[in-house]
Automatic annotation (TrEMBL):
Zinc finger DNA-directed DNA polymerase family B alpha domain span: 141-346
GO molecular function, one term: chromatin binding
InterPro entries reported in the protein's UniProt record: DNA-dir_DNA_pol_B_multi_dom (IPR006134), DNA/RNA_pol_sf (IPR043502), DNA_pol_B_thumb (IPR042087), Pol_alpha_znc_sf (IPR038256), Znf_DNA-dir_DNA_pol_B_alpha (IPR015088)
Enzyme class: transferase
GO CC term, one of those recorded: alpha DNA polymerase:primase complex
Limits of the DNA-directed DNA polymerase family B multifunctional domain: 3-102
Name this protein carries in UniProt: DNA-directed DNA polymerase
Pfam families for the chain: DNA_pol_B, zf-DNA_Pol
Region entry Disordered, spans: 1-20
Keyword Nucleotidyltransferase appears in the UniProt entry: yes
Nucleotidyltransferase found in the keyword field: yes
Alphabetical UniProt keywords: DNA-directed DNA polymerase, Nucleotidyltransferase, Transferase
Length: 349
């Protein structure tokens, strides 16, 4: 049975026509001289297909693979029904909801029974736990694991215009006192904090020198970029075959879904809209900037016999990075994600 959807306006008037299967079908019908099924108010039937000889569930977009029943009959030697699509998007979600209360069943097992790849249907609870940035921030004991996936702090030299990915102040200074850091960062430019100048500029003169104001301004600019990314509020479908991205929320409710999470491609897609860049991602990134510029807590990471030498190096570097570190800390502390409201946990008389 074909999927049907009505045109709310002429197919040429859709700004996102490339992502709308029924619009693509209507445009082709109009090009082929059809008078019905391609105007505003008409209902367009279509079938998701794949090319003959191509693997089922091909990576081509759903809209590009939608075909009118007449097209499928006419070109049946070229196109075939995409069975995997209908099993995964039309049948599996319904069967999963019906069997949710049956002990011993789960989406992955049901997918296996339908002949689908069960690895693509692991429970979302497991996926959410493993991908949640807050899990690594709270549970990881190693800095490399804790800040995995964060973008580096990049400083641009005002003299030569080259960019340098900055390691942590701690790892850079540890090299100067022959003390191995807990987190080794194999970067030939990692001595930027020890030299306090651009590693690519000549050693002589003031060319390439790093000033506290320059560091603070560049840290502020990069932090603002991530904050803007969060407030852009982009939502993305969690279905790997869809990945629909939008800033507009679909407020209808389907089944047990929360308001604003239904994918605009429903019923062709049963995925849910999730934030592309979450508050946890932002908090983790700003925490990483604080970690890079840290000159206080890093003392706890070295042996007792190396503390005096490290303190001497830190006393030289601290005035250079204090302003930038304070900016990063203030921006991080403004994130509500890092605060716990006790009134939400305890009842008051």
């Amino acid at each position: 049975r074909s999927i049907t959807k009505s045109l709310t306006k002429p197919p040429e008037a859709y700004p996102d026509a490339k992502n709308q299967p029924h619009v693509q079908v209507a445009l082709r019908l109009k090009q082929n001289g059809y008078s019905t099924g391609c105007s505003a108010g008409d209902t367009v039937p279509y079938i998701i297909c794949c090319e003959e000889g191509a693997s089922l569930g091909t990576s081509a977009g759903i809209a590009q693979r939608a075909r009118h029943p007449d097209e499928l009959k006419r070109d049946n030697s070229k196109w075939m029904i995409d069975i995997d699509y209908y099993l995964s998007q039309q049948i599996h979600p319904v069967v999963s909801r019906l069997c949710a209360s049956i002990q011993g069943t789960n989406p992955a097992r049901l997918a296996d029974c339908l002949g689908l790849d069960p690895s693509k249907f692991q429970t979302k609870v497991i996926d959410t736990t493993s991908d949640d940035p807050s899990t690594s921030l709270i549970c990881s004991v190693d800095d490399e694991e804790r800040y995995k996936g964060c973008e580096p702090l990049v400083l641009s030299c005002p003299s030569c215009s080259s960019s340098v990915e900055c390691p942590t102040v701690f790892s850079s200074l540890c090299k100067s006192i022959n003390q191995k850091p807990n987190e080794v960062q194999p970067n030939e430019l990692s001595d930027i904090w020890r030299r306090l100048r651009c590693p690519k500029c000549p050693e002589e003169g003031d060319v390439g020198r790093i000033s506290p104001i320059m560091i603070a301004n560049q840290v502020k600019r990069q932090a603002d970029r991530f904050i803007s990314m969060y407030y852009r509020g982009q939502m993305m479908c969690d279905d790997e075959t869809c990945k629909y991205t939008t800033r507009s929320l679909n407020l209808r409710v389907i089944g047990d879904s929360e308001r604003g999470t239904v994918c605009p491609n429903y019923p062709r897609c049963n995925g849910r809209l999730v934030r592309k860049y979450t508050e946890a991602d932002l908090y983790k990134q700003l925490s990483y900037f604080c970690h890079v510029l840290d000159t206080d807590r890093c003392i706890d990471k070295v042996d007792a016999n190396a503390i005096l030498r490290l303190e001497k190096e830190l006393a030289r570097v601290r005035p250079m990075v204090d302003s930038a570190a304070n900016i990063a800390q203030k921006l991080r502390d403004r994130c509500a994600y890092g605060w716990v409201q006790l009134t939400d946990l305890f009842l008051t008389a």
